[in-house]
Amino acid sequence: MSGPVTTSTDPQGASDRPAAAPDRTPDTPSADPARSSEMFDRLAQVLYAAGNFEAIYEAIVTAAPRLVDGCDHASLMIEDRGVFLTVAASDDVARTVDGLERIFNQGPCLDAIIEDRPQLESDLVSASPWPELGKAIVAETSVRGGAGFRMVVAGAKVGALNLFSDRVGALTETSVDQGIILASFASVAISAVREREQAETLAKGLASNREIGKAVGLMMAFHKIPDTQAFDLLRRASQDMNLKLAEVARQVIDHHNTGTA
């Protein structure tokens, strides 16, 4: 799909911004820089303290209308094995626009996931590169402009931050700069939670392996059998009882500790 704006092919950053049309500058002032900086600081604290993906998603879409000039609604769309899912939205308007993009299989949000640059279309009424989608959005919602920013985790594009405006021309190059920062915040926070969950999974796996090893040793001593036979006994018990091997091992250890083994 072709994007509605021309950008560089560099990773999302300072040089990766769409050229803003001079006749689409909104008549509303930009957000106060000091206030924006303070809000980004608070957002960072919320994101890095978040213990799960859902908390991060909700924090981002809640903050977007307050942090990005011209943004009235926001959503996060994640790609899961080729399926685009809306995992959070500031309101029903944002969810509706996401749904329309999925129906038409095009738009700034989907393009941001597929391509390597932010997508900006500040006028869906008369200048949309997706005419049918633009007509549907204008007919069914209050949205008149949209922008999409890809999110990258561990080098892979995982989804997009989607921003929508109720006014033609309200989303500008300044909005794009702010959206890039916000999407980057989201990417880093998602990556941190993912790494934390992977570490926790690894720790649980190591603990399970230790328990299985201990249970095998106990069964070797109790039944006077080699380790291969002891492990096979555990495995068969796991299948017969329809329990995970680690759970069966824990039961063997518990019985031993209570003197019933």
Q: How many domains in all?
A: 2
First CA to last CA: what distance? Answer: 65 Å
Number of strands: 5
Percent helix, as a range, is 40-55%
Per CATH, the class of the largest domain reads Alpha Beta
Give structural attributes.
261 residues, alpha+beta, Beta-Lactamase, Arc Repressor Mutant, subunit A, 2 domains, five-stranded antiparallel sheet, 8 helices, disordered N terminus
In short:
By secondary structure, the chain is of the alpha+beta class. It is built from eight helices and five strands; from the N terminus they run ααββααβαββααα. The chain has two domains: 172 residues, GAF domain (Beta-Lactamase, 2-Layer Sandwich), CATH 3.30.450.40; 60 residues, Arc Repressor Mutant, subunit A.
Note down, in words, how this protein is organized.
The chain has a five-stranded antiparallel beta sheet, with helices on both faces. It is elongated, with a radius of gyration of 26 Å. A hairpin with a 2-residue loop joins strand 4 and strand 5 (156-165). It is an alpha+beta fold. The protein has two domains: 22-193, Beta-Lactamase, CATH 3.30.450; 198-257, Orthogonal Bundle (Arc Repressor Mutant, subunit A), CATH 1.10.10.10. Helix content is 54%, strand content 14%.
Topology, pairings included?
Blueprint: H1 33-49, H2 53-67, E1 73-80, E2 83-89, H3 92-104, H4 108-114, E3 119-121, H5 131-140, E4 145-153, E5 156-165, H6 173-223, H7 227-241, H8 245-257
Helix pairs in contact: 1-2, 1-6, 2-6, 3-5, 6-7, 6-8, 7-8
